[in-house]
Amino acid sequence: MAELAGADHTPYVGDSDALLDEIEEFLTGIRHGAEPDRTLATILFTDIVDSTKQAAEMGGRKWGELLQQHHVLVRRELARFRGREVNTAGDYFLIAFDGPGRAIRCGMSISRRVRSLGIDTVSRPSSRNSWSEGARVHQNSRLK
């Protein structure tokens, strides 16, 4: 006999995994539990070189227009190389890919395409096992 938390034990309402795990163990003697939801991903971080300086020189309105154009180009390449936008703020993007090849090709393509706007980007792929790596890359790039 197993006591589960909750008002009812209907397998299709609430925490069905706990109930189904108990039933599985009772019937088979083994509890498999849910598979962890893990993915090996390559993260691409892009950032506009000297963005703070450029924004100050251009002024808010012109910089905002340039940033919009930049975002359109980056998102176009992101779709082309099947990346997934994880985060963006200001002039940086954090993009996830299912492998390093697409991330590298996308980063190179972004760098080439944004030159048409008169800007350069820094693109750094990482296949580390943590999303926090992207945050560290972002912080490190801001220190240079």
DSSP helical segment count:
5
Oligomeric status: single chain
Number of domains: 2
Mean pLDDT: 81
Proportion of residues in β-strands: 15-25%
Number of strands: 4
Largest sheet entry: 4 strands, antiparallel
- SSE-based structural type: alpha+beta
CATH architecture assignment name of the largest domain: 2-Layer Sandwich
N- to C-terminal distance = 61 Å
Query: Over the alpha carbons, how many angstroms does the gyration radius reach?
Result: 23 Å
Name given to the CATH homologous superfamily of the largest domain:
Nucleotide cyclase, GGDEF domain
Order of strands, main sheet, comes to 2-3-1-4
Q: In the CATH hierarchy, what is the class of the largest domain?
A: Alpha Beta
Low-confidence stretches: 130-144
The name of the CATH topology of the largest domain is Alpha-Beta Plaits
N to C succession of SSEs: HEHHEEHEH
Instruction: State the share of residues found in helices, binned by percent.
Output: 40-55%
The shape is elongated
